[in-house]
């Protein structure tokens, strides 16, 4: 498209002359002259240019959907016509995707018309001074379409629709699910890239997830119903999202469950690290930056921020404990608290708004999942139904859970040792993670029976550990009670000593008064 480049230079000359003219002539002449200039320009430059920016002016944190669709269309259909290409590797090095490099130009043909596409980027002047900076957050990338003026209507009404539709179809065909994490909020830098991602390839599924089969079926039904309920949510006037609270001890399968949910519904995962979010405004930006068909996860919500203390005043007992603490320990805790606050100013109300405020309706088909080891620590407002619609307890390994793990790890559906294991699991608390570890064969020589015996050994050890812990707890309790009794006795002795001293004082005073009166 060399002729358009030359014409571009001619245009620049015309624009220069026009700017000079505007300096010296009043408005009324300018209007007439502009009309003629436009006519001349359209004669000597018979093209129209349309620019598609990566970020639209009023939406600095959401990539333009048109830009993304055009990018896909050009990469798939026209990249092989470009002289310089950019390569990116996808699907764990299985294939390479080529796209146009910056400042490249390709042409397309549509209904016998020719259309040119250029890819460019503008680097802000400030940024150009710091060429060593490797991140490219503040680059302004854009695609420019050029077509002949007489084709303008067909191009804007038909061709562009074809490009955007094709871009969407390619996205569906080549979709790779992603695991996103939020970038640390930075002060006043205008960081647009709120999320970074890798390809999501977790192997956990509802088949490999070990839990009570009834409970599993219930969750599966709930998820499937949700994914098909677009019209229902519209009818009842609710935004199409659902909250899940997964709670239970470490190693009971909460994270595995999230991966299984994503694999079942083919959703992306946004793993939100709350302590890296500066404030509620940034939290909102992150929400807007998420796509539909996704799971937003906040793991260990009880540890993320002090979301409990901001609504509830400290309990009396906690306050008293705080006062009794060693001053050094107290100072360290206060410092930790300060650091935490400095790092993030997200509040409970900010988080509540994130889950079901007005902005939460800006996407569709989304799950919000919280996980915690201590459900009792959470503010009831955070987990009330409507916010966290479904509460799922992930608990210690029972016989049903064990059977799933035995099937997954050993391909066993029954064995003579199953009965012993079942009996032991009924009285000993071990997590599915512990059971899974015992069932995993560590060498070629380890067969299913050796693994089951490993598990029995693990259960016996756990039982012994629990017994020793109970003995130790009882000893500590007795010691504490003895100390408490001693303190109480000491207080009583002090009290009675003080009373005796007081009585003596009163008697001496009485005697003094009597002798004064007698004198
Ligand atoms: N219910 C389960 N079904 C299958 N595998 C499990 C289950 N629970 C735990 N595991 C195994 O234990 C490992 C740890 O589990 P996971 O990370 O899901 O636990 P978690 O509940 O998220 O723990 P935490 O509270 O510490 O984050 C997993 O990689 C998986 O192999
Ligand atoms: Mg986890």
UniProtKB/TrEMBL annotation:
<keyword id="KW-0460">Magnesium</keyword>
<keyword id="KW-0547">Nucleotide-binding</keyword>
<feature type="region of interest" description="Disordered">
    <location>
        <begin position="478"/>
        <end position="519"/>
    </location>
</feature>
<dbReference type="GO" id="GO:0005524">
    <property type="term" value="F:ATP binding"/>
</dbReference>
<dbReference type="Pfam" id="PF25568">
    <property type="entry name" value="AAA_lid_At3g28540"/>
</dbReference>
<dbReference type="GO" id="GO:0016887">
    <property type="term" value="F:ATP hydrolysis activity"/>
</dbReference>
<protein>
    <recommendedName>
        <fullName>AAA+ ATPase domain-containing protein</fullName>
    </recommendedName>
</protein>
<feature type="region of interest" description="Disordered">
    <location>
        <begin position="312"/>
        <end position="339"/>
    </location>
</feature>
<feature type="compositionally biased region" description="Basic and acidic residues">
    <location>
        <begin position="318"/>
        <end position="333"/>
    </location>
</feature>
<dbReference type="InterPro" id="IPR003959">
    <property type="entry name" value="ATPase_AAA_core"/>
</dbReference>
<keyword id="KW-0812">Transmembrane</keyword>
<dbReference type="InterPro" id="IPR027417">
    <property type="entry name" value="P-loop_NTPase"/>
</dbReference>
<dbReference type="InterPro" id="IPR003960">
    <property type="entry name" value="ATPase_AAA_CS"/>
</dbReference>
<keyword id="KW-1133">Transmembrane helix</keyword>
<keyword id="KW-0378">Hydrolase</keyword>
<dbReference type="InterPro" id="IPR025753">
    <property type="entry name" value="AAA_N_dom"/>
</dbReference>
<dbReference type="InterPro" id="IPR003593">
    <property type="entry name" value="AAA+_ATPase"/>
</dbReference>
<feature type="transmembrane region" description="Helical">
    <location>
        <begin position="6"/>
        <end position="25"/>
    </location>
</feature>
<comment type="similarity">
    <text>Belongs to the AAA ATPase family. BCS1 subfamily.</text>
</comment>
<keyword id="KW-0067">ATP-binding</keyword>
<dbReference type="Pfam" id="PF00004">
    <property type="entry name" value="AAA"/>
</dbReference>
<dbReference type="InterPro" id="IPR050747">
    <property type="entry name" value="Mitochondrial_chaperone_BCS1"/>
</dbReference>
<dbReference type="Pfam" id="PF14363">
    <property type="entry name" value="AAA_assoc"/>
</dbReference>
<dbReference type="InterPro" id="IPR058017">
    <property type="entry name" value="At3g28540-like_C"/>
</dbReference>
<dbReference type="GO" id="GO:0006950">
    <property type="term" value="P:response to stress"/>
</dbReference>
<keyword id="KW-0472">Membrane</keyword>
<feature type="domain" description="AAA+ ATPase">
    <location>
        <begin position="240"/>
        <end position="398"/>
    </location>
</feature>
